[in-house]
Amino acid sequence: MSVIRAAGGVAWRPATGGGIEVCLVHRPRYGDWSLPKGKLEPGEHPLLAALREVAEETDVRGVPQARLPSVSYRSEGRPKVVDYWSLRAGADGGFQADTEVDEVRWLPVAAALELVSYPHDAQVLHAFAALPPVTGTVVLVRHARAGTRGTWSGPDTARPLDAIGWAQARTLARLVAAIRPVRLVSAAPRRCVQTLDPLAELVDLPIEVDRDFDEPEAGQQPVERALAAAARLTALASPDGPVVVCSQGKVIPPALERLTGRSDDFTTAKGGGWLLAFTADGLLPPDRL
């Protein structure tokens, strides 16, 4: 039996007088109050689906901050899995009621927990409430495919993306543009800068080169570069908005190990990446994109 895939978010905003409010929607078809969510379109990334569904149901454009627990339950006799993210509310287009959602309420978390209709939504709200405040987010990606070193006769730093790499870069750009970055930073190699080119065009931002995200140079200890990259990622995390960093396969895993203090599998596919949420106490568990 096929699984229904869906995605949504806990959209939040500062409340007048302090604290925060989260968004619930009322669906007249079911007479329930729930978190905004909806089914994935064919081939759609769950995070893109979460942003799209929240925007469609609440007219709020959210900025992703941290991954929340996924929930599983049965819907119409089939298993259903819903992925959730914490979304800082950005632009608001002005809610207009329709047949799917006829009312939106912004409430303190405690009040939302009393109103929400389903235990699985309450579970997500409890997880959201337990998160420390996010002080900045970084999207850390590995460069897209650039052939192999053995087939390139020039300097390795000049090796360009191949056709598959450019396709990966364009796919990555559509996802990351929806996260609404405010800054783009790349390691120096040509393939890293090119990976961000389609994104730079979409969001109209320059690409800054930072050699702290390059692979170790000859004679340099890998731990030195891991420490430098981890420090730069922490420094780049800003409340101004998400920062995108493109680095390399020998840099990303050890940098994440340094930031998390764990030796998890941080291997990153070419053209893949992570959503990193920083707090005053450090990095939350990285969310593999």
UniProtKB/TrEMBL annotation:
PANTHER family from the UniProt entry: BIS(5'-NUCLEOSYL)-TETRAPHOSPHATASE [ASYMMETRICAL], DIADENOSINE 5,5-P1,P4-TETRAPHOSPHATE PYROPHOSPHOHYDROLASE MUTT
GO molecular function annotations of the record: bis(5'-nucleosyl)-tetraphosphatase (asymmetrical) activity
Record keyword Hydrolase present: yes
SUPFAM superfamilies noted in UniProt: Nudix, Phosphoglycerate mutase-like
Record's keyword terms, sorted: Hydrolase
Pfam family, one: His_Phos_1
Protein name in the entry: 8-oxo-dGTP diphosphatase
